[in-house]
Amino acid sequence: MTVFNFVFSGFCCFDSPVMCAAVPRERLIAASRQYLRTGKKGLPPAVSLNLAAQILAVDAGLKPALLYDCNTAGAEQMRLYLQTLLDTGFLNQPPYVLDIDGSVFIINTQLTIRRLENIPLKKQVTVIDVSRCRGQPAVADAGVRRAVEGRVTVFVDYLKNLNWDGKLGVAPSARLPEELTSRWNLCTLFGLLLGYPAAYWFDNERSFENCLSMTPLRVTSVSAACPLITGGPPVRLYSFTVPEALGTETQGLMDTWTQDLEDQFRQQSVFTHLSINTETVALPAVAL
Question: pLDDT tens digits, residue range 22-41?
């Protein structure tokens, strides 16, 4: 039986004016149905509009990347879809489509590079070891952190060397080479790419299982309204967890991450009513 324990612990709200040319919602829905179709099915309208809002958040610098998980559409389909959004003037700059072992990411290249460069320099991400053999999660030891930081440096060099020129107005795409993919625990890489202040790591050479079962986890959810597109419920920009027991050790980085997000929010004009909520849950199984 699934057991949940909820503890409400925070809410904050900021406003920012909307100053952006609107693209008809029907056009956004049509673009997703044309290019992101799998088989005979296209994306439902609500999913199409939420996707457009998520991509707009990447474009606005509110998040460095988006992992596409609406269906099984591939990187080339996503590239064509994004090109349509660029051609309509919906996006300010071309996002990069990066295929990592079959997972499709839409990346704000400049923001991603800037953020990843700060990981070894300013220690801006906590790496949490959740290997099954540990029994309980802990901040990763110095050896793991050095290994992750080394891989981050190599990955940043790869991003910098991609054939990308935002001035051309073309949505580019690439597939992360196998020699780079094989060096990573993809759970860690995905957490870093998505801009989380904490990323999980486990010793995947020993086991792909983790020690998070029934571990109290603090869930942070970030959402904002996007009146231009959805006109409905807030758009969820982030959702990630940190073990409750590591709250003290991770609080400093969490505060920095929150402040950076609030600062970036004030610099854009598309999303309004930023809210940051936390609750604590305990689950019988956690998939990473």
Answer: 678 999 999 999 999 988 88
